[in-house]
Each structure stands twice: as structure tokens, then as C-alpha cells.
Amino acid sequence: MKILGIETSCDETSAAVIEDGHSMLSNVVSSSIDLHIPYGGVVPEVAARSHLEVIIPVIDQALVQAKCEWQDIDAIAVTYGAGLGGSLLIGVLSARSLALAFDKPLYGVNHVESHVYANFLTATSLPGYTMPVEQPEFPMLAVIVSGGHSQLVLFKNHFSYVLLGRTLDDTIGEAFDKVAKILGLPYPGGPSIGKMAKNGDAYAYTFPIAKMNKYDFSFSGLKTAVLRAAQAEIGENYDFPSTKLAERLSEPQKANIAASFQRIAVETIVEKVIKAFNEYSPKSVVLAGGVASNEELRNKLSNRLPISINYPDTKLCTDNGAMVGALGYFKASSHQPASDPYSLDIASNLSM
Ligand code: KG4
Ligand code: ZN
Q: Are 290 and 193 within 8 A, CB to CB?
């Protein structure tokens, strides 16, 4: 069964063809990230306009790369939430029109859930991808760490899951992005902090780990602690503007702050994952979302858990159509209800 997956929830326009939920025949991603860099974050209007310009060529290219014609496609899956309204609309309206024009079943998928399904992609002949050897087993503990979400979700099976915990304020991705801004590092902050942290002392600062109930997280206190440490480092008090800090901090100071912040941000997640692992004894632990490519997070979890963890190729951690196609396959093959191509609506605030 071949599924065309379409993703436009944020700043990546992407389409992919996935066969039987595990084989990635194509994955085409066009990112508008360069257009947002000057603003230090995604500008919704700019993202939506960019999706509109590239969505049709991206879908065409995904079919060509997969060596498919429309008649080979069994169903279309599209992200309908969560995400930016204007961006989601472009993907959903394109998918609805194509489903009607080519008479294909349509499946609306949850963006956060689809990040988890990047872990089910185990084969591709496309160059440059390192795929996991096998699909994760259930029960599966999913550690969803992205710019939009920080959640721990226990999957008993496909479509049967419980939300164990979530962030009560900022997501871990936002914390990386905000600390990067303080240090004058480019957006997106995650990769730039990871690089800078390699030259720093992770124990130079003792930032706090938020103590939250059960499996919930909090990252806003950590972000404020970083800001206060940076102000103190240059001998200024709390009303010194965060936008002027970077020019006063030396490179070694920045590296130490980046490394110490990353250690605590990662530890915040790792502590809760270990606790959930001990309570629920899942057969697999999977990482999902943009922050899943963080090396420190991967290494710490691998070292501290008694089973090996699963994570997607770095290119499949950030937003892509392949993960949408993978989840679409499991929906279609398990006879989940298809969406109405005349009425599938977007849901900007959809949660798990
Ligand atoms: O999953 P994603 O592409 O978008 C959302 O659905 O939110 O995640 C983007 C987030 C950004 O906050 C970015 O800074 C972070 O993922 N990120 C990383 C790394 N690569 C991307 N954070 C830490 N380490 C990385 N290597
Ligand atoms: Zn995402």
C-alpha cells in the first residue's frame, strides 16, 4: 500500500511516498527557514506564502522521486493540526483537492503523533539516510521533544495511548531557541547550542532542574536562570536587556553557558523518562521531534536505560512528509475512519 504524505504545519513544505508504513520511496522537503532567520523565529504569514508557492512542485517531485504515477497511490495523508493556521490550510486544502480529483481516500493526521511514526520508517534507497534496523515494539514510550511540544506518551498499541506528562510552560525546543538568542547564536537554536556546547564546561554553572509533578516538565525557570547568569557574568543586574548580552559575553563564557544549559535541559527530560520506564516497563523507547537529534539527549538516554533507544535519522526528526505517510499507512491499514475530503478542517491547537 502506497501513501502520499503531506506536511505543512510550520516552516517546512514536504511530501513523501511511503510503502507499507516502513519503506520511504521519496521524501521532498522545502524549508522556508532562511526567510525567518532575520526575525529569530517563524513568521506565520511568510511561512504560509512560501507553502503556497512550493506545495504543488514539492508533491510532483515526491511522485517522481518515488517513480510513481497517481494511479499507484492508494491514499493521501495530511497534517491537519497542530500548527500554524495559515500553513496547515495550504496542506489540507491541497490534499482535499487532490483526494477529490484523483478519487483517493484521505486521512487527516495529528502532527505530534506523526513525529513518533518517523521511528517506523526502516528502509529507503534514498541516499544520505541512516534508518533504524527494526520498527519499535509495543508498549512503546514516546519522548516527544520539539519546538511545539514536550510530552511523554505511552503507546499500548497503534492509536491506543495515554499522555503521561507534558510541559506546563515552554517546550524544550523553545528553551534551546531562546537561550540561543541570548547567546547571539543563529535560529534554530538547538543545533547552534549543541555545536557551541562542545567547547564548553557543562558544570561551569549550576542551573536548576524544575521539580514538577509526576511526568510534567517546565523549562521557563531554566531559561530565566540562564538569563540571570549571563547578566551576572558581565557584572550587570536583572534589568540589563537580553538583546545586548551577546556582544558583551566572550566565546568561552558563551560555550560554558551553552553546555551547562544543555546538560540541565537534557537531564530534565532524562529524569522523567527513567521514572516512566521504571513504572511502565515499555518494550521500546522512541525519541521524536526536532530535539530528538540532540546528541547529548541520545547519549544520556542510551547510557542510562537498560534497553537501546530508537530515534529517526536527523533529517526525519524535523518536520517531513515521510512521517505523515507512515502514520497514514497505519490508519489506512487498520481501517481507521477516513476524513471527508469536502470538510476536513484544520485544528491549530490539536493535542495528543
Ligand atoms: O519538530 P520540529 O522541527 O518542529 C516542531 O514541530 O516544533 O522542532 C524544531 C525544534 C527547534 O526548537 C530546534 O531548535 C530544535 O527542534 N532542534 C534541536 C536540535 N535540532 C533541532 N534542539 C536541540 N538539539 C538539536 N540538535
Ligand atoms: Zn514538528
A: no
CATH number of residue 93's parent domain? 3.30.420.40
From 198, 286, 291, 297, give the residue whose CB has the most ligand 1 atoms within 8 Å, as the site to mutate: 291
Strands, sheet with 123-124, edge to edge from the N-terminal-most edge strand:
106-110, 75-81, 2-7, 12-19, 23-31, 123-124
Bond before 82 cis per omega within 30 degrees: yes
Both 234 and 144 in one domain: the answer is yes
Has residue 235 got a pLDDT over 80? yes
Measured distance CA(285)–CA(24) in Å, rounded: 22
Cβ 21 under 6 angstroms from ligand 1 = no
Q: How far is the CA of 234 from the centre of ligand 2 (A)?
A: 36
- CA–CA separation, 251 vs 199, rounded Å? 9
Q: Say yes or no: 228 and 144 in one domain.
A: yes
- Tens of pLDDT along 258-314? 999 999 999 999 999 999 999 999 999 999 999 999 999 999 999 999 999 999 999
The pLDDT, as a whole number, for residue 39 is 80
Which one of 37, 109, 112, 146 would you pick to mutate in the ligand 1 pocket, going by the greatest count of ligand atoms within 8 A of its CB? 146
Task: Give the residue numbers spanning the domain of 96.
Answer: 2-136+313-333
**Atom 5 of ligand 1: nearest residue by CA position:** 147
> What does residue 42 show for φ and ψ, rounded to 5 degrees?
-75, 130
193 within a domain of the structure (yes/no): yes
Amino acid at 126: L
Domain count along the chain: 2
Query: Grid coordinates standing for 229?
Result: 547568569
Mean pLDDT of 224-244: 95
- Grid cell for residue 316: 526525519
What are phi and psi for residue 103, nearest 5 degrees?
55, 55
Q: Is 334 in a helix, a strand, or coil?
A: coil
Return mean pLDDT, the chain. Answer: 96
Radius of gyration of the chain (CA): 20
